[in-house]
Amino acid sequence: MLFIQEQYQYLVENFLSQEHFIVEQFTNQEYLIKELPVVLHEKCLVVGSLTSSPDQALSLLLLLYTLVQEGAQQVILYSPYLGYQRQDFYITGQSEGFKWADKMLKATGVHSIITIDPHCDDYLSQLQVTVATQSVESIFDQEMAYFIAMGFTFIFPDKGAASRYSWIQETFPSVAQGYFFKKREFNSVELSNFHGKVSQKVMICDDILDSGETLLQTCIALRLMGVQEIVIFVSHAFFNRTAWNELWVLGVKTLYCTNSTPQSSHINHPLIQVKSIAPLLQKILYS
Predict the structure, then answer these.
(1) CATH domain 2-134 topology
(2) Apex 117 CA angle, 51 and 192, nearest 5
(3) Would you place residue 17 in the very low, low, confident or very high pLDDT band (cuts 50, 70, 90)?
(4) What global pTM score does this model have?
(5) Contact indicator for 207, 182 with CB cutoff of 8 Å
(6) What is the 3-state secondary structure (H, E, C) of the chain?
(7) What is the pLDDT of residue 61?
(8) How many CA atoms lie within 13 A of 128 on its CB side?
(9) Backbone angles phi, psi at 254, to 5 degrees
(10) 125 half-sphere exposure, CB direction, 13 A CA radius
(11) Chain mean pLDDT for the chain
(12) 182 bridge partner residues
């Protein structure tokens, strides 16, 4: 049985069957889930994310809890972008949001989570809720193969991105790669100590485009190294603020992203190609 949060309805426009339910609010702003179908002994897949507006996040937690309480045999959360994962370490006087999100999800009784290209893959084993991951390899591989044939090589903004895209080395072992060492302080990004090889035509690969500041600094550094053409691939794109608008004057020909976030599903730009993650969702539904 498939349940879709409102913000992710665009992912299932071609699906024939999804379950309907109603989310209401009392006048005091408390949430109510009602008119759920019978889920007793059923396997339920819920598509949603805590990285959303407060109403969507709270209703997601309440929906997961309610499905478990109604006797579902299994409740799985399909969260294309796993929220709060950039708050994965403790700093005095600052929230450790990833552990909080984990405990909140655990409290609902959800059995497991499936997500795409997590930002902190090494940290997942420490969570209370079991998390399985999917890769964007099948989403981007044809475009990447095309650019490789055109002489492009791979660049990563940092070593972490290179590790997250380890499948690139396995799929395209003969293609040169390189990465920077990245240091982030407050809202600024500093790149240094390039490792690997760089050509005049490169594909930058990263998991997240938030404001675009990291990608912007990567492009600036590459241009100073003599790079002439740049194509960007990102798993999750939020298109916040304005920094990403400056990419096009730095030699970026095209930016590819998935529609794993509602923001990316609504973007309309001649140099941005949005690839659907629907095939990844279908793998879960029909497995």
Answers:
(1) Rossmann fold (3.40.50)
(2) 100
(3) confident
(4) 0.93
(5) no
(6) CEEECHHHHHHHCCCCCCECCEEEECCCCCEEEECCCCCCCCEEEEECCCCCCHHHHHHHHHHHHHHHHCCCCEEEEEECCCCCCCCCCCECCECCHHHHHHHHHHHHCCCEEEEECCCCHHHHHHCCCEEEEECCHHHHHHHHHHHHHCCCEEEECCHHHHHHCHHHHHHCCCCCEEEEEEEEECCEEEEEEEEECCCCEEEEEEEEECCCHHHHHHHHHHHHCCCCEEEEEEEEECCCCCHHHHHHHHCEEEEEEECCCHHHHHCCCCCEEEECCHHHHHHHHCC
(7) 97
(8) 13
(9) -150, 145
(10) 1
(11) 92
(12) 191
The amino acid present at 236, given as its one-letter code, is: H
Indicate the pLDDT class of residue 88, thresholds 50, 70 and 90: confident
Residue type, 151: G
> Which pair of structure tokens corresponds to residue 41?
């002994």
Give domain 137-275's CATH architecture.
3-Layer(aba) Sandwich (3.40)
Kindly state the tokens that stand for 217. 């600094």
Domain span(s) for CATH 3.40.50.2020 in the chain: 2-134, 137-275
